[in-house]
Write a structure and sequence with these properties.
Length: about 300
């Protein structure tokens, strides 16, 4: 009896040991399966394909220009009480111009028509002609003439000398700027001198002010900013202009059938100057910001000669 009980106890222990071993094996098998799945996913992730592309974004800001005057309802009045030997009158007009144009603007003025005289509104044959004095040589007005004078800074160039009114075909240039600036004012003085020979009434003419933005040369990108992606985006045979930021020299770059972009103009950089990163002259590619902007090898025909054949 004791032996049978001991056998049963030993048998029970062995069964429990087997169960424990089977459970441990199952846990290890499960852990191994999960680890293998994670490893497979990791290998898959590291082998994923990648692609990239450069996209140049641009915002185009248009050039705008505005012109205003301080004339009341577009009219500048010059009241004159004439005398037998003549009397003068004048009034100031300020023209304001504003533009965001990079190279500034040009302001001009002329009569709206070829006739530069002031014409009586009723008796149209009665006129007050423009003075004949030029802008470069203004002079005092004679009786029954009119004209204008320009200002420099805060003062009129002369309160007694005037220039002729330009015809529409040949306007006077009043101001020229070369860069963006805050609104600028140009002040003119219009004057007339009249005696009692002229009938009373209103004499009129129309002057036209024109503000024109100056020409802006097209933007040429720096060759130092030319990348491989920009070369790849070009079509075979396409040519572009690039500017060297060291001396602003413009070169042509052409995409050849080999897929590379080559300089088709000789490098004209003054190597005696103090430039950083002087290029090496030769036929090797000139690397520009990681691109393959290359200088094509040039071979002179004079150097391509055959060796003379010697007779045995």
């Amino acid at each position: 009896m004791p032996q049978q009980l001991e056998y049963q106890l030993n048998t029970g222990r062995r069964q429990r040991s087997v169960y424990i071993l089977l459970a441990v094996f199952a846990v290890c098998l499960l852990a191994g399966t999960v680890a293998g799945d994670i490893a497979r996913r990791s290998v898959h992730d590291t082998s994923a394909a990648e692609a990239e592309s450069d996209v140049d974004l641009s915002v185009n800001v248009a050039s705008v220009i505005s012109l205003t005057t301080n004339a009341t309802n577009g009219t500048l009045s010059i009241p004159i009480a004439p005398l037998a030997d003549g009397a003068s009158g004048s009034n100031d007009l300020t023209v304001s111009v504003h533009t965001n144009n990079q190279t500034g603007y040009k302001l001009t003025m002329s009569s709206s028509v070829a006739d530069t005289a002031l014409t009586h509104q009723v008796e149209t044959t009665q006129k007050i002609p423009s003075t004949v004095n030029t802008l470069e040589a203004p002079a005092a007005l004679t009786n029954n003439t009119w004209g204008y004078s320009t200002w420099t800074g805060e003062q009129s160039t002369s309160s007694t000398t005037f220039s002729r009114i330009p015809a529409v075909s040949a306007p006077d240039t009043l101001r020229t700027t070369s860069a963006i600036s805050d609104p600028t004012d140009t002040t003119l003085t219009f004057g007339a001198r009249v005696n009692t020979e002229k009938p009373s009434g209103t004499y009129t003419n129309t002057v036209v002010f024109s503000a024109t933005s100056n020409y802006v040369p097209p933007f040429i990108p720096y060759m130092q900013d030319f990348t491989q992606a920009k070369c790849n985006a070009m079509s075979d045979g396409e040519t572009r202009e690039l500017r060297d930021q060291r001396d602003d020299t413009v070169y042509r770059v052409k995409k050849m059938v080999d897929g590379n972009c080559w300089m088709v103009d000789n490098l004209a950089l003054d190597l005696t100057g103090s430039y950083s990163g002087k290029p090496t002259w030769g036929t090797a590619p000139v690397t520009v910001s990681g691109s393959t902007c290359q200088q094509r090898p040039s071979t002179s025909r004079k150097q391509q000669h055959r060796q003379p054949r010697t007779n045995p």
